[in-house]
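Hey team,

Sharing the HD domain-containing protein run so nobody has to redo it. Sequence (216 residues) first:
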Amino acid sequence: MTPRTAERIAGIEIPDSALAREAAELVRDTAGDLLYHHSRRVHLFGALRGHRRGLDFDPELLYVAALFHDLGLTQKYAASEQRFEIDGADAARDFLLRHGLAPERARIAWTAIALHTTPEIPYHMEPEVALVTAGVEVDVLGLGFDEVTREQRDAVVAAHPRPDFKRRILAAFTEGIAHRPGTAFGNVKADVLARFSPGFVRTDFVNVIENSEWSE
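Structure output:
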């Protein structure tokens, strides 16, 4: 039997274990092309930034966490009332535990996904947690853009194109959380709903404090 040749994109070897292949298939079937290609780019950009910074990370764990990070935006979770980040984090943890990973590794993946919309904090945690956020920041916000060379960016986008990505990802964010607007409190996604969800009213932190049951 001819051995499988590892897929490499921009110099990054794509994990090819049975677990990694099953995770990719599950996410592609559940999330569709937009979020699948975005998630693969998140993995690649996160790995590239990790290598640039000299971080020692588990490639398979980073890959699975990146794949699952936006799963909570999909139709499967249309009835969920918790934060979409938690939906994806729970799904990844359950997937990893079913496949026999140690609870501590599953916890790291859960944390990476749960915190990927929370600025700065992930960078003070495990490398896999930091690098999911690092990948998201490049692909969605353009932060850390110059930490990835033009040749690397071109290779990633050639493998995982991003046609009309800005508009389409904002639409996916809106569709995934508009039915649970309270979960945007204290979160960057409040900006998305303020722009694209008619009637959305931000929860005001100061008002919450001033109108609490405490007399003073």
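The beta strands are 8-9, 12-13.

Ping me if you want the raw files.
A.
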